[in-house]
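Re-running the complex after MR caught last week's input typo. The corrected sequence lines follow. Everything else is unchanged.
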Amino acid sequence: MHIAFLLFPGITQLDLTGPAQFLSRLPGAKIDLVWDSLDPVPTDAGFSILPTATFADVPRADVLCVPGGMGVAQVIDHAPALDWVRQVGSEATWVTSVCTGALVLGAAGLLRGYKATTHWAWHDLLALFGAEPVQARTVIDRNRATGGGVTAGIDFALTLMAAIAGEDHAKAVQLALEYDPAPPFDTGTPAKAGPALVAVYQARANKLAPHRRDELIASAARLGFTA
Amino acid sequence: MHIAFLLFPGITQLDLTGPAQFLSRLPGAKIDLVWDSLDPVPTDAGFSILPTATFADVPRADVLCVPGGMGVAQVIDHAPALDWVRQVGSEATWVTSVCTGALVLGAAGLLRGYKATTHWAWHDLLALFGAEPVQARTVIDRNRATGGGVTAGIDFALTLMAAIAGEDHAKAVQLALEYDPAPPFDTGTPAKAGPALVAVYQARANKLAPHRRDELIASAARLGFTA
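Corrected-run output:
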């Protein structure tokens, strides 16, 4: 069971490390983190993760998983990365993403005609790539499995694990990783958080990367996707 | 706001990467991952994380956080690591752990007389180190904040973030990271999972490290902690 994650600069590291923790407990799991080179890759959280393999090392995998993060626009514009996602995704048993990684799958042409989800703030962009946006924490449509924003990757991974190895296995891993969530607050979606907290999010996103949405739309257009 | 995580071989990487994702969003956050050297540190999930600093580089921090994992017994037996935890913990504003990292805090003498929690399967060992075990996902007693097993680190981090930066800030980060958990199953604690799944966990733990509990008790005794 070979699971290949795309690792890239500016990744939201929990998009990868959450699912990787769960999926590493699949029977016979081999996890690869794949990028251009084996040099350390800086994440959004102030530390670096080491790739285990380069694109050339991993021409195929049972599960492809593309995480998201601030670096997604650069990934879409980086032909070796997008070519690798397209190639591995064309043959993988499961083609998956977490958070804005769905936009990379979309840019690689892998979500045309598929239901999918992504981080709530970027949901509308799924349609640009021919996907059908669904508001859900995990969406499975045939062999495409997509998770919502960041922490949704854990619910996504448990759901995918059950589909691959059965519910009993997934339930045992849930116990081992003590996944009995009890958030101290209930503000994990825009509807629950309310407009004031949504405005805080938008202000921060605009400050960090004011043109990110326009850049993504421009990149999509260059690849032939138009609204 | 300087947050220092202990990083070590055999760490359960989500114990660190979950809280680090949240705590990196504290105002002015600087995250350090600290170990003996700057060489890559292998985690339990098949990939390596790079330390950002060595013990000598980080003599103090505002928040000390010790994650858990299979390597915890070796950390307790490794004097430079335990000395660093004791030193930084003696002056930190917050002394914290996730999962079996609590046993390292305990071995460093930092939980004597404090309420604390850890992974459900190791809960009873807290008392060895003079702590008062509490069955909860997050336990805060004065400046000690401890989280339960693995994924509890996320609830722990949100709770700690609210204590440090206020509830409004924590709620905004919860929205940004879309933390609205919806596990597909409800087997995250021994009581909810039932005896058959608990037996699966124990069998795997016994297979991976049959003498781990005895080793931890022996290490505790060497440090002067006796039941």
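None of the earlier attempt is carried over here. The mean pLDDT of chain B is 96. Residues 2-222 of chain B form a domain with the Rossmann fold fold (CATH 3.40.50.880).
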